[in-house]
Write a structure and sequence with these properties.
Number of domains of chain A: 1
CATH superfamily of chain A: Histidine kinase-like ATPase, C-terminal domain
Oligomer: heterodimer
CATH class of chain A: Alpha Beta
CATH topology of chain B: Transcription Regulator spoIIAA
Strand order of the largest sheet of chain A: 1-2-3-5-4
CATH architecture of chain B: 2-Layer Sandwich
Structural class of chain B: alpha/beta
Radius of gyration of chain B: 15 Å
Strand content of chain B: 25-35%
CATH superfamily of chain B: STAS domain
CATH topology of chain A: Heat Shock Protein 90
Radius of gyration of chain A: 15 Å
Mean pLDDT of chain B: 88
Shape of chain B: globular
Low-confidence stretches of chain B: none
CATH architecture of chain A: 2-Layer Sandwich
Chain lengths: 142, 127
């Protein structure tokens, strides 16, 4: 999917506390044309939140607001999202799979969100390119 | 999209939190404030009624699990009822279901609280 980024519809969003709601509305509008069932929408929303919240909290130094680009591509196979930022290099997929037998509170911050995301999506990839973190993931139609 | 949180007393030392809407990064703070107030009460059982909860993310999951941890630390427990399939799936993936008791529906929870209440009354009536 990362090879088809030129086909995605992108919007730039300030990476602040309001970013999630703006991104969510944008993605849901894009997804609407696919007429996806509720469980699929749930997966999209969950993956979007977990990845985006990581960017909002960790990509840029405290006190500064960068931009996060949220992109969407819908086709007959399903929906793909791209979340890209110009912050410090960070590959959330490198986080180790959380040990689910350890108390939730003791697990690494962000680890659980990424773990849930991996379970929800059909494919996910990370690339560092031109000083940008680029994450794309795909959720297929049932 | 928002979250509506309703708190009700249940029996002598129980409480019920009805969560309706979405428990996500945008709504978790208000819910967390309400929860702190609830957990400061002398309760032993907290029931989350999730019948009308349509969405939960990892931060919402943490909230429920933190409540369980704090309540269990003082000998209490957290119960849940009315999980929609997608919500149940999230709890299942995170492997936390065996640690939280789940009721099929509110009626089942009602019977549980009634039985608890009866136990308290029986204990009081013992000579």
């Amino acid at each position: 999917m990362i090879n088809r980024l030129n086909e995605f519809n992108f919007i730039p969003i300030p990476a602040d506390e309001k970013a999630l709601e703006t991104a969510r509305q944008f993605v849901l509008e894009q997804a609407e044309r696919l007429n996806l069932p509720a469980p699929i929408i749930f997966k999209i929303e969950l993956a979007l939140e977990e990845i985006l919240v990581n960017v909002v909290h960790y990509a840029y130094p405290p006190g500064t607001t960068g931009v996060v680009d949220v992109g969407c591509l819908t086709d007959e196979a399903g929906i793909s999202l791209c979340i890209a930022d110009s912050g410090r290099p960070f590959n959330p997929l490198e986080k180790e799979k959380p040990d689910l037998d350890i108390e939730l509170e003791e697990r690494q911050i962000g680890g659980l969100g990424i773990f849930l995301t991996r379970e929800m999506v059909d494919a996910i990839e990370y690339r560092r390119e031109q000083d940008r973190n680029i994450i794309t993931f795909t959720i297929r139609k049932p | 999209m928002t979250l509506k949180t309703t708190v009700r007393s249940r029996g002598t030392d129980g409480c019920e939190m009805v969560l309706e809407g979405r428990l996500d990064s945008n709504t978790v703070q208000a819910c967390s404030n309400t929860l702190s107030e609830v957990l400061s009460r002398p309760i032993r059982v907290l029931l989350f009624d999730l019948t009308n909860l349509s969405f939960i993310s990892s931060i919402g999951l943490r909230l429920v699990l933190n409540a369980r941890k704090r309540l269990e630390a003082k000998g209490g427990s957290v119960l849940m009822t009315g999980l929609q399939p997608q919500i149940a799936k999230v709890f299942e993936i995170a492997n936390v279901l065996p640690k939280v008791s789940i009721f099929e529906n509110v009626e089942e929870a009602d019977r549980y609280f009634a039985a608890m209440q009866q136990k308290v009354l029986d204990a009081q009536n013992e000579p």
